[in-house]
Amino acid sequence: MAARKKSNSSVIILAVVIVVLVGGFFLYKSGVFGGKGKEKITVYSIFQEEEARKILDKFKEETGIDYDILRLPSGEAVSRVQNEMLNPQADFLMGGPADSHEVLRKAGALQAYASSNASDVPDNMKDKDGFWTGFYLNPIAIGVNEERWKEKYGSDPYPETFKDLLDPKFKGEIGMSDPATSGTAYTAFASLAQVWGEQEMLDYMRQLLPNLKERPKSGIEPIQKAAKGEYTIGVTFLGDQLKIKNQGNPIHSIVPEAAGYEIGALSIVKGGPNEKAAKKLMDFMLTNTPGEIYTQSAYAVSTKPSVPIPPGGIDIKSTKYNQDYDLWKAADQRKDLQDALKSLR
Amino acid sequence: MKEKKGIGESLGRLLKDPSSLALVLTSFIVLILFVIYPLIVVVFTSGFDNWGTFFSKPRYGRALLNTIVSSSLSAVTATIIGFIYAYAIHYSNIKGKKFFRVIAFIPLLAPSVMSGLAFLLLFGRGGMISHWLNSVFHIELDLYGLPGLWIVQTISYFPLAYMTITGVLRSISPNLEIAAQNLGARGFYLFRTITFKLALPGVINAFLLVAINCFADFGNPKLIGGNYSLLAVEIYGEIINNEPGLASVMGIILVIPALLVFWLQNKVLSKGSYSTVTGKPVSGLNRVTTSRKTDVLLFTFNTIISIFIISMFAITILFAFTKNFGRDNTFTLDHLMKVVFSSSSPAVLNSLVLSLVSAILAVAFALVLAYIVIRKPFPGKKLLDFSAVLPIALPGTFVGLALIVTFSKGPVVLQGTAALIVIAMLLKQMPVGYRGLTASFKQVDKSIEEAATNLGANSRKTLTTIVFPMLQKTVVANFVYAFMKNMNTLSTIIFLITPKWVVAAVSIFNYAETGTYYWAAAVAVGLMGATLGTLGVIKLIFRSKVKIFDF
Questions:
Q1: Which of B197, B164, B161 is nearest to B75 (CA)?
Q2: Which residues does chain B have within 8 Å of residue A70's beta carbon, measured at their own beta carbons?
Q3: 10 Å Cβ neighbour count for A27?
Q4: What distance in Å separates residue B542's CA from the closest CA in chain A?
Q5: A156: which DSSP letter?
Q6: Is residue B425 within 8 Å of residue B354, measured between CB atoms?
Q7: Domain of life here (chain A) (predicted)?
Q8: pLDDT in tens, A275-319
Q9: What 8-state DSSP symbol labels residue A250?
Q10: A79 contacts in chain B (CB < 8 Å)
Q11: Which residues of B touch A86 (CB under 8 A)?
């Protein structure tokens, strides 16, 4: 009997402790404790969590504002923000191609904020009303596995242009993702359509098809496989190639003429729980430090001219990328072009 | 005294007992709101158009076929391995049985994605073993897709098969085997004609359970499925592409086989599905055991499986505590500090709190339900009972899908709240507790309660002083089970997490998918640590009253 009593009272003590701890945690989470000094910002991050955290830790250090973060692929981020418009959960959307932000702007889910720190970001890399601002850019590039090239083609020169990839000797040696699902491949073909005209771009794609080993779904896959030696050439964003190269793979990158580019953007969610902190974060993001942290880790190029090219990176201004690439036009044409590309077999 | 029957009579009695009435009403409201209503919404969300799209696109058909093929394969191998493993422990004279039992238990501590993660770290493109094979033998390992998935699902679900089969093996009476032996049956003949025949229902049951779990598995296929696309993964894709209709169609297709199995279990194999809880070992006679040669074989087999499991945990721990295992083996606590103990990423703490809350609620609710269903007469009892057990048959992906589709719009909006996560976990675990508790309730004779009532105790007094103390063991066991499952659940809550309430299993999945393996490993270690710590506290409190580490 005594044993039962003892265990019963310990059960009660345990229950009380659990209720107090759990209840306290919930209250803490909802911001009851800690007073006003404890601001917290909620971020949806489309770029890798590791880079986002590095930047946000720095932000926390400087401003004392803590953060919650959730990493999402761009498609999910867009649908989340759109679905939550009545009751926004996040304050800030970090990274992801500008056309995703453009979709959200059109849906009325974003808050315009023209940070004074954005003044040196070129006009074609930000929304004119400040709904989103470009943070990095990343051109399309041809990545060659140097070892496999030497085995197959000896001392032949590397392909310099998109048309060079049509050479029949590359049959089954090129990897490029499917423009119907991958933003990377879509960027490449949309740019070609803008430079050459739609018909010539489609003709080009038709001739290129026999040379493509496969058309994977995600943008980064071709270069990962090329690095492994599954094929010789992978067409992806330059940053992905440099990252893989700097991990010790024999990749040589060429940014050909007419190569389109992606702008990774930042935006503030309209009606988010902590708008003031979101604006502070936007100002902070557009200073040089976050730009440096990001470029040194992801090998993209900052939209700010004052952020240096990281060691091992490539200054895209020295390349032949398509500076006139119009992402607004590309976003408008997306469905039509994708349908036309899908029906090529 | 004869009990009066009829709806009017039972309603009348209920109305006279306000506390019971409140319990019945609450139960109805909760189950209808969170089980029946979401089901109806999902059926309506999947419009005719979406059914058309599903059947006209070969992509979805292939995903369905892939799902069937891979789940069947994995279920077959997991059941075979589970059977041999259990047989070795219960029928042979091998050494280290206790060790093998613990080994089969530890995968339960880890989220199912962790096996996928560990597999990537060992056999992935840049995995330890693939790397070694490549540099020594120039063999290139590419196990993405079906082969990898097959191995991972087999390993992560074999403990389930093992436990189910163990329950059956324990309840087989040695009498029959001894009798058969006396009649001259020996060795494999004895095994085939007696032991295996008797265990067969349990084996089939284990196969079905594993198959359903594989069918609904989401994390592993997403991590290592490669181009081999499965239904649960397609559902995820359609949800993130904002196509709830198409996702609902696939959700419904995912549910059909699960419901079939559920029905089969109830009709054909009405015994044994939770035999780990109810199966009673047979004592007294010593059973016939295996020959020395078989012992050696069985021991080798169990050792190989154990090495597999241990190496999975070892590689995860190595990654969690080194800078970047394989490239930089310096010991560090950095990853743990960053993603487990940091205020800006309390994923493990979130998991702990949500799982505790949900497990407590699940057991409490199961208790209430079991009590009113067994003891109180009221109309609609069948419906209540059905909707209480139904979630067992629903795959986690489907439960998550139904909750997000239902509660992001419409009259009740819960999207983005911790409550929705708690509810999702509760729905998946409550039915298990409910089944166990109804069984225990039936064992407590009604006459004891009637005696208390005659002596003047009301319902509440009877419950707290008579019934609950007798149920304590089942309650604690169910709480522990629900808590562990909650800690590790991924597919049920992946759509429901919010930036404030990121949970550990989802973090592991996200980090693994984006290649940040050391963080994934660190969170996995943190999660297992938290689970073990909590179980330890429970064990300290209840001492020998609960058996946690002994299934």
A1: B161
A2: 497-499, 502
A3: 11
A4: 7
A5: P
A6: yes
A7: Bacteria
A8: 999 999 999 999 999 999 999 888 888 888 888 888 888 888 888
A9: -
A10: 240-242
A11: 413
Reported as half-sphere exposure (CB side, CA atoms, 13 A), residue A175 has a value of 24
Q: Is the model's pLDDT at B269 over the cut of 80?
A: no
Taking only the tens place, the pLDDT of each residue in A144-194 is: 999 889 988 989 999 999 999 999 999 888 988 877 667 788 889 999 999
Complex ipTM: 0.74
Report how far residue A139's alpha carbon sits from residue B335's, in angstroms, rounded to the nearest whole number: 33
Please tell me which of the candidates B345, B349, B356 has its beta carbon nearest to residue A18.
Answer: B356
Residue in chain B lying closest to A92 (CA): B499
**Total Cβ atoms within 10 A of residue A30:** 10
- For residue B164, what pLDDT band results from cuts at 50, 70 and 90? confident
**Taking the CB of residue B284, how many other CB atoms lie within 10 A of it?**
7
CA distance B241 to chain A (A): 6
**Which chain A residues are Cβ-neighbours of B242 within 8 angstroms?**
75, 78-79, 82-83
Burial label for B442, CB within 10 Å (0-12, 13-18, 19+), is: exposed
- Amino acid residing at A47: F
Contacts of B344 in chain A (CB under 8 A): 53, 56-57, 60, 66-69
- Alpha-carbon span A223 to B169, nearest angstrom: 52
Third-level CATH fold of B15-39+328-551: MetI-like fold (1.10.3720)
Query: Which position has the token pair 């093929």?
Result: B69
Query: In chain A, which residue's Cα lies nearest the Cα of B545?
Result: A7
- Tell me if residue A71 falls in helix, strand or coil: strand
Asked if B412 has any chain A CB less than 8 Å from its own CB, the reply is: no
Q: Render the burial of A131-163: b for 16+ CB within 10 Å, e for the rest.
A: bbbbbbbbbbbbbbbeebbeeebeeeeebeebe
Interface A:B, Cβ pairs < 8 A: 84
Interchain contact B284–A (C-beta under 8 A) = no
Contact A89 B418 (CB under 8 A): no
Please report the beta strands in B287-414, taking only residues with DSSP state E, as ranges in sequence order: 322-324, 328-331
Give the H/E segment covering residue A234: strand A233-237
At A261, which helix (H) or strand (E)?
Answer: strand A261-269
Residue B76 pLDDT > 90, yes or no? yes
Chain A partners within 8 Å of B469 (Cβ):
4
* DSSP collapsed to 3 states, B160-215: HHHHHHHHHHHHCCHHHHHHHHHCCCCHHHHHHHHHHHHHHHHHHHHHHHHHHHHH
CATH class of domain segment(s) B47-274+288-320: mainly alpha
For chain B, the domains span 15-39+328-551, 47-274+288-320
Distances from the Cα of B457 to the Cα of A287, B164, B452, B460, B464, angstroms: 73, 41, 6, 8, 10
How, if at all, do strands A66-71 and A40-45 pair? parallel
From A29, which residue of chain B is nearest by alpha-carbon distance? Answer: B500
- Nearest alpha carbon to residue B156 among B309, B319, B316, B318: B309
- Put simply, the answer to whether B415 touches A79 (Cβ < 8 Å) is no
Q: How far apart are CA A219 and CA A183, in angstroms?
A: 7
Are A162 and A196 within 8 A, CB to CB? no
Give the residue on A whose Cα is nearest the Cα of B500: A68
Nearest CA among B336, B482, B471 for reference residue B422:
B482
Number of residues assigned to chain B:
551
**Percent of residues in chain A assigned helix, strand, coil, to nearest 5:** 50, 20, 35
- Is residue B153 within 8 A of residue B218, CB to CB? The reply is no
Q: Quick one: pLDDT band at residue B551, thresholds 50, 70, 90?
A: very low
Residues A44/A110, Cβ–Cβ less than 8 Å: no
* Residue in B509, B513, B505 with CA at minimum distance from that of residue B226: B513
Enter the tokens of residue B202: 């349990």
